Fold this sequence. Notes:
The complex is a heterodimer of chains A (396) and B (166).
Chain A lengths: L3 H8 L1 H10 L7 H35 L15 H11 L10 H18 L17 H22 L3 H32 L4 H8 L2 E2 L2 E2 L6 H17 L11 H4 L9 H26 L15 H22 L5 H29 L4 H24 L12
Antiparallel strand pairs in A: 1-2
Helix pairs in contact in A: 3-11, 3-12, 4-11, 5-6, 5-11, 6-7, 7-9, 7-13, 9-11, 9-13, 11-12, 13-14
Chain B lengths: L2 H19 L3 H21 L3 H26 L14 H22 L14 H9 L3 H23 L7
Amino acid sequence: MLDKPIIDKMDQIFVLLQHWLVSFLPVSLQPLAAVLLSVIVIVCLFPALFALTTVFERKGLGRIQNRLGPNRVGPFGFFQPIADGIKSLTKEDIVPASANAPVHFLAPIVLVVAVFMGFAVLPMGRNMVLVDMDAGLLFYFAMGASTEVSVFMAGWSSRNKYSLLGAMRAVAQMISYEVVLLLSSVAVVMISGTLSLPKIVEAQNQYTWDLPHWYIFTPWGLAGFVMYAIAATAETNRSPFDLPEGESELVAGYHTEYSGFKFALFFLGEYLAMFSISGLGATLFLGGWTAPFSFLTFIPSWIWFFSKLMLSIFVFIWMRGTLPRLRQDQLMNFAWKFVLPFTLLNLMVTALWRFMGEGWERWVVCSAILAVVWVFMGRIEMRSEHFGPRSYRYAE
Amino acid sequence: MTPVFYIIAALTIAGGLAAVLLKNLVHAALAVTVAFGGLALLFLSLDAQFAGFAQILVYIGAVAILIVFAILLTRGSDLPQDGVFSHTWLIGLMIAAGVFSVLAWAVLRSVPALPHETAVPAVTVHDIGVALVGRYVLPLEILALLLTAATIGAVIVAMHEKDGAQ
């Protein structure tokens, strides 16, 4: 076991490093330089993580499908993202003749900018948040909502039926699941009483018998986390909700007509959205940068945050390799007839939890309500589901 | 009235003007989005975080998308043959100018009535929340009822076409 000063130093190493670097500048420039430095770190770190994740994803999918995955470039194929990056930088940038050039050009930029903005409010460690906003959670969702516009811009400006269909699917899906995403997070806000993400983490940073007070370890938190995870998967267009880019139907969805670096930007934006939504999920339900056991608090907070983030990325990859793609009507029915009502119920259960006060009764009552409704709603939904040949309403 | 205000105001007005003047409907919808974004920035420059973010979330995330959907699902984004400008644009302009002048008159008249505050009032999200479920709970509930009625109405309108199957 290390002694306290060293533990604190390791925990705050990036904050101290930033202070040390900024201290070389005149005092008037220091606040600006500190912010710029943090922005540069965020803008460099997450694309690097993206490069690593693409290798892990391809390796992981390869493992799931009983093949090797990339193994030619560098040791075990780990330099594959560098090769891919050079390829997409040197490829010809093709803009279709009938495309709407300004909108076609702006779409990937709007997407990446909006996604990067989300990282501004995520606490990545103790004292490691770029802007500690009073309404941080609201800011995050506002930025998430702006990505929908860019997806539509991409699909519409390409002047391609596949692009447009993909964009319409993507926007419909993102709007439907955004409601769930917001409402499942509202439960956390109801209990912690704040929209500031660092304060939400602080509220979970307590321990009883070595176990943390993470919100996922409460009945409403578990239900909320499951709903949040479903909505996050749909929101980032990941499998099994990846209909907007279903290859078998839509070529590549809204980015069909993008090539070269613009395509790489879409790819980057998609993965960055995945990172930030995982980071938000970890912050809201999994205690953010706090350690899972009180005797593990000597490990720096930023290691915990990024471990939780990479764990969710691993689950994303695992789901992609395991689950088949849904159909559009199944996707919408699932969102509006199961996930949304259950999330609304979870809000009421959260209120009940809040007003029943301390004690074991609230654990029993809240768990029972959620479990019973989960089972019965599932049963009722399944009863009305006809398993048989697909019926077409428009194309007979 | 700082330079930042003028930049944001110019952006907002440019967005609004583009929305009215552009020939392509989808371009106009995207220009409205820019105007919404400018309004949100104006709120933020007044330290009204909640209003600013709610503006982005609701107007850019939902209203702009709704407009775009409405354009694509109804008449398509292609240019109509007889131009995009309505024949009654003069009357429209007059009505808009009338509404603007009434609003401007009301705002200018209300300036002396307000207490002159020197410091920026610090209103946190917490205060807004308390006010919403405390003093303004009745308007909030009425709005919620109205929106629920609108949602149910929309569902009923959409359900009407398939009367054969359940």
